[in-house]
Amino acid sequence: MGVEVVVDGLTKSFGKQTIWRDVTLTLPPGEVSVMLGPSGTGKSVFLKSLVGLLKPERGRITINGTDLVRCSEHKLYEIRKLFGVLFQDGALFGSMNLFDNVAFPLREHTRKTEAEVRRIVLEKMEMVGLVGAEKKLPGEISGGMRKRAGLARALVLDPEIILCDEPDSGLDPVRTAYLSQLLIDLNSQIDATILIVTHNITVARTVPDNLGMLFRRELVMFGPREVLLTSDEPVVEQFLNGRRLGPIGMSEEKDQATMAAELAHKEAGHSDGSPDADVRGVVPQLEPTPGLPPRGAVRRRKDRVMSIIHTLPPDAQQGIIASLTPDEQRHYQVSAGVGPDTATVPDTTRHTPSPWPRQGGVL
Ligand SMILES: Nc1ncnc2c1ncn2[C@@H]1O[C@H](COP(=O)(O)OP(=O)(O)O)[C@@H](O)[C@H]1O
Ligand SMILES: [Mg+2]
Questions:
Q1: Global pTM?
Q2: Domain extents for the chain?
Q3: Is any ligand 1 atom within 6 A of the Cβ of residue 39?
């Protein structure tokens, strides 16, 4: 099973430029999480920090009891073997065919025989749907195939943590849907902890168990998907609806005067260019392709989320309860109602003035 990744008070700067500060979150073992954020908010820097390629100035990243930020080079090398990373550009070697690209980590980091290498490479290429493409060069195939080859290469060392940097970038909506399904299928087959960085709204809505968002050099929120999908925190709502109206501007941040003017314009009945009026809410999550085992994370996550449900906002509570089967509702002793008022779960967040939660540490 995948391992837990605990990020605590992480801050990363380049010279005087702080990329993000005080990021605190936990990637639960075997669950799929998505980190959202506008371009340039430091999502790639976050992934590279997790895998030890960049060194944050402050905070901890704890995996199996080891703090990656401060451990020895030797220990870091050991921990890195737990990771499979799909970089934003696929990072394939242009002069090597797909077989050799996928085989590369095995030849580099293990002493497996060529027969074993071949068996593993073909197995992973089959998992990502690339059978028959072994001899192709990266330049001869589509962007979607390159992503899948990058993913196959990330899988060959049997990672317990998989990091994907914008797996959907450059893909059309159909290819993106296939890739989303592939990630869920992989999770059902190997139960690895997965973190996907993206700014794709559809991926964010349908793929992960947990959602987070980086904005203005901070982690705005991180928690169960139901919390962000029902959130009325302006940054999160604007982003998940792809709207111009809101705090996120063309070059990241808007000033107050612009926001007020836009709001007045919208209230006067003008469109702000968003695709739908409002698509806030919990949409069904992707399930593994029929025939594959159920995702191990689903059961664990239900126990985990139900143990903290009383700390979540009412809409998120409703979304979670509505996703349970009648048997599960009996098991957890909750019942689905028509509105938050009828939930039998104690509501402790209703009168909390600050948006929930600024930092998702315990979630
Ligand atoms: N190695 C680096 N040295 C200096 N600045 C960097 C480095 N890598 C990234 N940055 C800066 O960090 C910021 C966040 O970049 P990035 O993580 O790539 O954003 P995102 O992936 O969210 O689009 C950018 O302003 C970028 O210029
Ligand atoms: Mg990036």
A1: 0.85
A2: 5-223, 233-267
A3: yes
